[in-house]
Amino acid sequence: MLLKFAEYSMISGPLEGIKLSSKCTISQYMDMVAAQDRVAIANFIEQRFLERYLDPVTVRCNSKNGFSIMAISCLMIEALECFAQGRKDSNQLSRRMFHDFFDCHQQFSSFRAIANDFYVHVRCGILHQAETTGGWRIVRKGPLIEGKVINATQFEGRLRKALSDYCARLKAEDWNSSVWEAFKRKMDSVCTNASAQ
Fold it and tell me: What global pTM score does this model have?
């Protein structure tokens, strides 16, 4: 059972020292929740995703690699979709996470009909075998997708936009909306995992 925000004080140890991002601890996050500061929380979650996923393989990297960009992108899609759906994890649901993600984001509409192939040959290939399978290839030039060839640079740019759109939605939606309820469920899990002894 996930902890509710009021129960975080029952977690042993100082929450001030447990970082959720480079600039936000669990304690600071709890303060934002208490204030229902939607903008600050949306900014924090955007920072968390950028610094953990996209920036290390794009902004701060002198030797960018399309394969690494796609590996990180696949991890981020599952994490971002868990936030959108309010799921503590994607266990037994990974394939569905990719279908749902592509269905919900217009900038990935060209992946909707091939979501299952993408999941099997790109996501699972990269994360389980350290290679794409089924003839799929990753490049860094050309169109987003052409046959079984994916441009990782364009894919990452669209993923960055999906994150920006999600954070904009968090800023715009009411605190008690379904978007925020899902977000809070996922963050309960994140905070519980981060503070586990």
Answer: 0.89
